[in-house]
Amino acid sequence: MTTKQSSKKQDRSYLNGILSAIIPGLGQMISGNFGRGLLIIFSILTLSGLTIYTAAQRARFPDYQISAQIFITLLLESIALILFLLAIYYIVNRFLGKEEFARRVSQAFFILIAVIVFGLVFDPVYRMAEPVGGERQVYELTIYLGAIIIACLWLWNIGNAVQTSKTYTPSMMAFILLSILGILVVGSQITQINLPKAIREYKDTQIILQRILWPWEAAFDYEASDLRAETKVQAPCPDPAEGLQPAKPGETETWIITQPACGEVSTRDMKGNLTLGTKLTISGGGFEPGEIAYVEWKNPIGNAFTPRGVGETEIMVGEDGTFTSELHVPDTVIPSTAIGPQYHTLSVYQRGVASFTGDLSKEMNLALQAMLETIMMGLMATFAGIVISIPFSFLAARNLMQPIRSSLLGFIGNIYGLVLGAWAGVSLGSIFTPMVGGLEKSPVLTAFIYLILIVGLGILAFRLMGVILEKITHKLPTSLSHLISILGLVIMGLVVGYILGQAYAHGVITITRGENVANHMAPSTAKIGAVIFGVLFAVMGIKIGPNGQVPTGNLIYYGVRTLMNIVRSIEPLIWALVGVIWIGPGPFSGFIALTIHSVAALGKLYSEAIESINPGPIEAIQATGANRLQTIVYAVIPQVLPPFISFTIYRWDINVRMSTVIGLVGGGGIGFLLIQWIRQFQYEAAGIAVWLIAITVAVLDYVSAEIREKFV
Amino acid sequence: MLRVENLTKVYEDGTVALKDVSFSVEEGEFLVIIGLSGSGKSTLLRCINRLIEPTEGKILWNDVDIISAGDKELNQIRRSIGMIFQHFNLVDRSNVITNVLAGRLGYVNPLWSLISYFSPQDIQRAKQVLDQVGIPDKAYNRADELSGGQKQRVGIARALMQSPKMILADEPVASLDPVLAHSILGYLEKINQDQNITILCSLHFLDLVQRYASKVIGLRDGKLVFEGTKEDVGQISDERFKQIYGEEAQRLNVG
């Protein structure tokens, strides 16, 4: 045992030595003395860093790169030289052997040579330093000595690594720690973690962050005994330009006019670069002399803001209470659905003493309204999600679905019936709906009629066909009826395969080879598909056999489960994008997005609750002669109620959270306001929104935890 | 009158649970099925009301073949066969009276039952049945608040609500202590004698069998290895005993 161990260690020791030669300390870390290895590598790094730093500092123009280059060169040369000298020393020792005196002399001689060699070698390296401005950068002994010391340390470390591996046992821990270290290093590079940057840039953003973090000043209405004057500016300019008559000077106490009275808005592109709009010359009078007047812009939607980057926003009023200034029309939103002339309001005001009116400010009101909208959106989406997902969850519960089987004929009858019924529904629908005005005049009624007809006739035909087929084939011998069912399957297979073949051509080939090739190949791929699937379905039909059962329950289960998983993996924010494209921005599209995701998520949770129920009561209720629906109501539902409630509350929680941010992509609610305010630099209003979101989520969190405790 | 002919159940993985079991039961009998765990007792009982689908064979219940019955017919057959279980199989979160009323599900209008509406007569009857089994005061307690013996009595009450002609009992007293076991079996005996309801019951302990059974059949590895009256049970020789229960079995006297 011991010999094997020692020979194993023997093999490892050279490997360790090599490892430590490449990265000093690595060998020690791996062979079990993690601390020493770490110490070695940190020492070498620190010493190298210090050497380079000191050398660079002493140069007139500190250049770390050159210092580092020189240092590394010196280091490698030192290592090489030391190794060379050690080799010579070893050889000399071998040959001079026992003779003491001769050895001493040769050693002394040897040291002398070493010093000379070092001196000779390193002088040209010194000359690597470029003369700058006629003067020579002097890299002092620091870098020279540093390189030698570190070289010695490095070499010692190699020997030590070999030694360590003989006495220490390698540990898994070292590998794990090293791997984690490696991942952290690489990871922080890739994610561009840059702590100094964060700290550096904090100072600049401090002001804005403070405004967001404590925005309550903007929450309340202050009655400003302001001196304010307003004038209307039209942007874009109407065509032909209607003459906007600004108030003439002297008519009102405080007044401003702009020249011209209409213009084009500035635009900001994706990078934030501003293209200036029309320049307005503002003149005003009747203000408090010697006090600063502030410029405010209000766009046609009613958002008031301080225009940025388009001119002076703080104007010093002259001795006579008048002023002149220039301002470009700022970049602001003009709703694309706007019709008619768009009036912006330019106002200039001087702050009087602000007195608190006791009312909430406009922004606060908007935010509160939006918060209500958000909470309702989350609530409604949860309700809709519950209602729609319950039937799906039963279909996705394996223990309920697995026993559902149908005979082969029944299955075929059902499918054909479904298709026929749906087709009948569509045809009947197209006959009936023109009578009520069709899609243009009454879309809801039309959709409703179509839905009822398709679903109703589909289900009816579904059941009917199955029954009819079974009645017909009841009289026939089994082989014949089996043949009929196989035939039915083959036809289904042909149709399915044909459609899939076409889809493949138009979908895949269009991409890989272009549309012309796709169109050319479509008929042949369709035929190939039809043949493949026809054969496949026929084989399945034969395999199932005349008395076999088609596991329809399982098919439905897999289908529904897969669909739900796909829908669930698409985050609500993405669904919101779909909603916004379909319906437009606003809470309705947010509601739709949340509902779709909730249905899939709740469906999965509910179905898992159903799968985990005790089968005993189901047996018992079945034994009393109850039908399937009664079994579900009496045996399944009471058992799944607690987890149902728990999951529902959980989902409500998530939906409210999601609804706060779904506005960011246009889904309405507080997120919508938040992103608008941020874009318009109204950071205090944005701060109010952030606070409201945080408060709401915290309160709802608490409430839902309490409910869950009481009920579950 | 129940006649089982050549009943066989083979599971999909090949396990043979029942092999060619044939026996008959007259009306009003108290038939006990004995055998080791895994000998097929539960499977046999569950095949009779088709909670498990038999692979082969016939089960004739008053000359109606249960196995070939359609769905609707099956429900009608099931409602006249009550069943009680070893682990009671009550709906724990519902209250006792709802559990008992569930016995009526085969008879009531399905739509009403979906919203938990039962006629006053049904409710009255439920209370009567609870009284019969001795727990009238627990009617509105939640089922999981009851003790084991009380739960089994609720199970019996549920079966009685079906006005059954036959009751299947799958090891009804295996989870109960000996005193309770006698109590429960006493109820079954009473029902059997007063209302002439056929009882098919599987039991472990032979002294219970001797006390209550009127006829006994024994299963081993899915096959019928014993058929006899209760007197025959008392006279089972040790060798015969080992035939039924296997080589390592020893007689045990309990209670």
Give structural notes.
- The complex is a heterodimer of chains A (712) and B (255).
- With 712 residues, chain A is α+β, with helices and mostly antiparallel strands.
- Chain A folds into three domains: 192 residues, no CATH class; 211 residues, MetI-like fold; 127 residues, Immunoglobulin-like (Sandwich), CATH 2.60.40.
- Helices cover 68% and strands 10% of the residues of chain A.
- Chain A has 22 helices and 16 strands.
- In chain A, strands 4, 9, 10, 11 and 13 form a five-stranded antiparallel beta sheet that branches.
- Chain A is flat and about 120 Å long.
- The two termini of chain A are 61 Å apart.
- Chain B has a six-stranded mixed beta sheet, sandwiched between helices. In chain B, strands 2-1-4-5 form a four-stranded antiparallel beta sheet, covered by helices on one side.
- Helix content of chain B is 36%, strand content 23%.
- Chain B folds into two domains: 172 residues, P-loop containing nucleotide triphosphate hydrolases (Rossmann fold), CATH 3.40.50.300; 74 residues, no CATH class.
- Chain B is α/β, with parallel strands linked by helices and 255 residues long.
- In chain B, a hairpin with a 2-residue loop joins strand 9 and strand 10.
- The chains are: A alpha+beta (712), B alpha/beta (255).
- Chains A and B meet through helix 19 and helix 20 of A and helix 2, strand 6 and helix 4 of B.
Question: Which helices and strands occur, and which strands form pairs?
Answer:
The complex is a heterodimer of chains A (712) and B (255).
Chain A: H1 2-22, H2 26-30, H3 34-58, H4 64-96, H5 100-126, E1 131-132, E2 135-136, H6 141-167, H7 172-190, H8 195-213, E3 220-224, E4 227-234, E5 255-259, E6 267-268, E7 274-275, E8 279-285, E9 292-298, E10 304-305, E11 314-316, E12 323-328, E13 343-350, E14 354-360, H9 362-395, H10 398-401, E15 406-407, H11 408-436, H12 438-441, H13 443-474, H14 478-513, H15 515-544, E16 549-550, H16 552-569, H17 572-583, H18 587-611, H19 615-623, H20 628-662, H21 670-679, H22 683-711
Antiparallel strand pairs in A: 1-2, 3-14, 4-13, 5-8, 6-7, 8-12, 9-10, 9-11, 9-13, 15-16
Helix pairs in contact in A: 1-6, 3-4, 3-6, 4-5, 4-6, 8-22, 9-18, 9-20, 9-21, 9-22, 11-13, 14-15, 16-18, 17-18, 18-20, 19-20, 20-22, 21-22
Chain B: E1 2-10, E2 16-25, E3 30-34, H1 41-48, E4 56-61, E5 64-65, H2 71-79, E6 81-84, H3 96-101, H4 110-114, H5 120-132, H6 148-161, E7 166-169, H7 178-195, E8 198-202, H8 206-212, E9 215-220, E10 223-229, H9 230-234, H10 238-245
Helix pairs in contact in B: 5-6, 6-7
